[in-house]
Amino acid sequence: MKRISDPLRLKDYIETCNLQSYLDNDLIPISNVYTFEKDEHLIHLDTPSDYLYFLVEGTVRVYSYSSDTQNIVINRSEAVTLIGEASSLWDLSPKSNVIAETPCVCVGISLKKYRSLLQQDISFLQNVCQILSYRLNSGITLANSLTEPVETRLAKFILENAPNQLFSFKLTTCSAILNVSYRHLLRTINHFKEEGILEKQKSHLLIKNETKLREIAENIS
Predict the structure, then answer these.
(1) CA diameter of the chain
(2) β-strand partners of 31
(3) Which of 50, 62, 117, 195 is a plausible cystine mate for 74, CB 3.0–4.6 Å?
(4) What's the pTM?
(5) Which of 40, 171, 23, 161 is nearest to 98 (CA)?
């Protein structure tokens, strides 16, 4: 892990990836840019991380070991993804490893310095709770996350979270839940809008063609 002291680069990541929307506290003074080489660990099994990370470039693999020491892949994540919120934030021992599959860049927050601040940040806790609760309740499997197109995952997610045909879920949180980059999410939403499936209305998206959206959710060609 290398720390990059570049305020302009940090500011650009925060703005481009819309990271400030995750928390109430100003992110710039409490964070830094960190880089990881391919095959370098971000988090080790049974060792709480000293940092909470926002993955902004690259791909990581979350894995553990079975009783016969076989490497079991639990999930893969691409930017923008929170790393360390499930255990390190609470100073608990992680039950899996996180390793860089490609060179990675993260915006990191020192938990030794700012754990208490994060634990009292209402917006941050709400985002973490939404991400963890959705993953737990939806039962998204590794197979789904790796084989289903982003369009299918997003269509399902919108249908599950659009009371009265209105989808107002925070998009940064949505991208983290679906393990898709924020930019890719926006491209997919724009495609849905161009196809007349969704319509932008102030702070939410209106489902204009539910039949087509359900066909995408069911992966019907």
Answers:
(1) 54
(2) 109
(3) 62
(4) 0.64
(5) 40
Question: How far apart, in whole angstroms, are the C-alpha atoms of residue 18 and residue 118?
Answer: 17
pLDDT at residue number 77 = 64
pLDDT attached to residue 74: 53
Q: Which fold has domain 2-145?
A: Jelly Rolls (2.60.120)
Give the domain 148-218 fold.
Answer: Arc Repressor Mutant, subunit A (1.10.10)
Phi-psi map region of 97: left, alpha, beta (phi>0 left; psi -120 to 50 alpha): beta
pLDDT of residue 214: 92
Phi, psi of 198 (to 5 degrees): -125, 155
Place of tokens 């737990």: 136
Residue 136 CB contacts under 8 Å (≥ 6 apart), including other chains: none
Domain ranges of the chain: 2-145, 148-218
What are the average pLDDT values for consecutive 10-residue runs of the chain, which has 221 residues?
Answer: 93 93 95 95 88 90 63 58 80 84 93 93 89 64 57 90 86 76 92 95 91 88 51
Q: What are phi and psi of 149, to 5 degrees?
A: -65, 155
Q: Can you tell me which residue has the tokens 């939404």?
A: 130
